[in-house]
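Late entry, evening session. Most of the bench is empty. Finally got around to the prediction I had been postponing all week. Sequence below, unchanged from the version circulated by S.P.
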Amino acid sequence: MRTSIALLVLVLLQAAAPAEAYWIRDCRYHRNFTGQTSMLADINPGSADAAEMIFGFAHRNGRMAIYNGVLYFQANNGQAGSELWRVQSGSPAMVSDLVPGADGSTPHSFAVFQNKLYFAATTPATGEELFRFDGTAIALASDITAGAEGGEITALAVYNGALYFTRTTNAGQKVWRFDGTNAQLVNAISNVEDGDLYESPFVVFNGKLYWVKRGGLADHFQLWAYDGSSAVKIKTLTEPNDIVEYSFDLGVYQGSLYFGVVAGPSLSNKDELWKYSGTGVPSKVATLGNAASFTQPDNFTVFKNKLYFGANGKFYRTDGTTLTDLGAGPGGPPYAAEQMSPFSSVDRLFFTGFYDTWTSREPYLFDGTQTALLRDIMPNDADPYAGSFPTTAVMAGDDLYFYAADQTHGRELWRATGEQGPLIVDCDIVVAPIWVDKRLWVIRDPEVVVSTWIVAPEARPRLISREVVRAARTKEIRLRVLSVDTRRQPLPEGFALATLVFNRATGAILDRGFDVVGSPSARVRQALRQAAAAAVANRTLKDVTAETVSKY
């Protein structure tokens, strides 16, 4: 039920004005999660790592990908070096020992293009170049620099029928375009002013390729767009001559590109959330908090038709218009929510965070309302870190995969399985007198009777809760008036809850309120509101005491 419903308090005190004393809490729809989170296999036996430790931009590690429904990932078994692996029939297996011996080819930065899996890899003969896998064999896709020199390749992105990526050599960082046969330098991007292309991956939005670029101090960080022929700067993201190094990310949601801006002078600047429709000028959505290195909005992820992201160590959600600070720390999600990935088979959002110190980062699941620890993988007393530092997870089938480290096996591939439980509907009534003027308190800490009815379409109101509690001005009392497992007892598409609060000693009505739960039609909603209003219009405490409570 909506917390915006204003409930009239009838205070029997001469010259006292009405004041809100109680309110009705929202109903919560959720599903119980049952599953298992465990290491898939000890690929590199013992305490050795199958995957390297990743700090900072772990959600951009590019070491896992889904190709034709199969999980492919980088792993080192301690004998062949880091090579391409996949999960088949629930078990990991190496695809190919591209570089025989202990060195490995270190495949990374995956992208699916023209029904093949592309990635960067290194061999003694080619250096780091672009390779591809067709489901059977790995082959060199393009040897841009002949011989063993190669170049560092990152940020593979499919755009306008081609594969774009950055490549760094002694000549600097450049952008290349690969059409499936030939690779060409994209001068329109590579030669835009001086400076480096930023760590943020390319993002395709509204028919253009977007990225964040680091330039000189006079124009330190900038958002750019490329339409296939020319590049244009969309917005400068920092103030002139701001010397701080920042972290920028990009996300797409409801027809807009979202990104961060650092506004104001150095040492007193603020992080801001902005969006851009693709035309005109970008607009600010909200101011988030004080800016510092690596506090900018990032990990943009769409979950349950909302956009989630982390910033300033907090966890945020927006519907494109309003911004909700979901908090962080005790009582809320963990600090520094990162590595966000939808776990769609169980209707949850996977992310990582910590409650104590940044070295205790572990995986969590969020159902849209509450956060739960997925598994405490690394013991709290482990040395040197109390956290498992999970990476961004990817889904293959119904399961979720990610890298994490425990105390015994090192950093390995983990899998979370889950089953979507039945839809549970929980509704709470919150009794919390909030009078500011103490003279409005007729009886100190009175006992009150909180009675709630459920009103279903074309049905008589049914008393489902009648609780006697002692109310205090300084303490809220939460009453669970409705909890339904819809698998065992279906609820109508829309229903109403109506509540009366009585002073137990005098029988006086202290409060009354009602609202509709669910998404019925406008006609049904109006009928439910009328029936709920009638349910709390003429009842006395004597009537309610005589009425039978029937749990729904």
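Two things to note before I forget:
Helices lie at 187-190, 522-535, 541-546.
The longest helix spans residues 522-535.
Will write this up properly tomorrow.
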